[in-house]
Structures are given as structure tokens and as C-alpha cells.
Design goal:
Layout: E1 6-10, H1 14-26, E2 30-34, H2 37-42, E3 50-55, H3 63-73, E4 78-83, H4 88-96, E5 101-104, H5 109-141, H6 145-155, H7 160-167, H8 171-185, H9 190-199
Parallel strand pairs: 1-2, 1-3, 3-4, 4-5
Pfam family, one: Response_reg
Keywords: DNA-binding, Phosphoprotein, Transcription, Transcription regulation, Two-component regulatory system
GO molecular function, one term: DNA binding
Length: about 200
Amino acid sequence: MATRGNVYVIDDDEAMRDSLHFLLDSADFEVSVFETAQKFLDHLSTTEFGCVVSDVRMPGIDGVELLKRLKVSRASLAVIIMTGHGDVPLAVEAMKLGAVDFLEKPFEDCRLVAMIDAALRQAEAGARDEAMTQDIAARVAALSQRERQVMEGLVAGLSNKMIARDYNISPRTIEVYRANMMTKMQASSLSELVRLAMRAGALKD
């Protein structure tokens, strides 16, 4: 039973696909192979988290264009690009578009396996980070307008009395808004609230 993660191999060379399938399956990865990037993209909506290992030069959609499309779709997949001799400029462009790494052919089997393991760990950490940011942003979005104003006042260093004066309401009312806001933000302290607001990009310039 595969335990190391999902790997999606994209290469128009049948012999390379078969070789990589055998190697990665033997290394306990769950492997799917595709002869074109388009066929992979056709299944993207049902694709589970994993690592894409794609050749950079392919007919139709090449590795660089594949990365551009994955970026647009915001797919949380690690991508390793395989390159031939002389394709380093393309590989550099691929990394600028979000590829985790690139590997020049021919390569040692153990190097690819280690690279996939590292790419999966990095992508998992990134996916958790993104999920946490989205969760915090959702907490901010759930605040009422007044609760949002109180939060912005607090992280700007204002006291309850100062916030109350700004909005011409009583400090006691601000305390109620503050308590509700802290509950919705799941913040136990002012310092934690500041960190959450920064993470969500909710602080004013």
C-alpha cells in the first residue's frame, strides 16, 4: 500500500513514463502517468494533493505553460520539472513560476525520490499555511462593521475610551463589541489579535 504520497508523471515519452512509474511505484508512491499536460489538466478538478513530475519540453502544453495554468487554478501541488541538456533557462523560468525544483536528465533514481519527498513536505507546509491564512481571513469577514472597527482600533494601539470617542459611543458598548470580536477571531490576548490581523492582511497601512 502506497504511503509516501501521490505523484503525477507527465511525459510524452512512453519509455520514460513506464520507467518512472516502475521506479516510483517501487518506492511506495501512488503513481499516475499522463502522456500530455492537457490530459493531466482534464483531471485536475479531481486530483488529490501530491507532486507533479513533468518534462519541460512536450507537444502542445509544455512544462512552462503547465505551471502557468496551475498557478491560475491555484492548485496546491508541488511541481518538479525534468529537463534535457540545454534546457536550464527553461528550468529557471519554471522555478520563477512556482516549480519546486528541476532535474536534468539523465538523473539518478535516488535523487528523484529524495526530491519528491522534499517537494511534498514543502508543499504540505505551504498548503497548511495557506489554509490557516484563509481561515483567519474568514474570521475577519465574519465580523460586523463595528467589530471590525474596534479590531482596527485595538491593533493600532488605541484604548477602549479612544475608540469610543472616535465613533461617539460609550466605552461600555466598545467593551461588548471587543468581547464579541475577540471571540469571533479566536484570540485570547491583544498580542494574538495583532498576529491574526497581520496574517489576514487586515491591518491598515
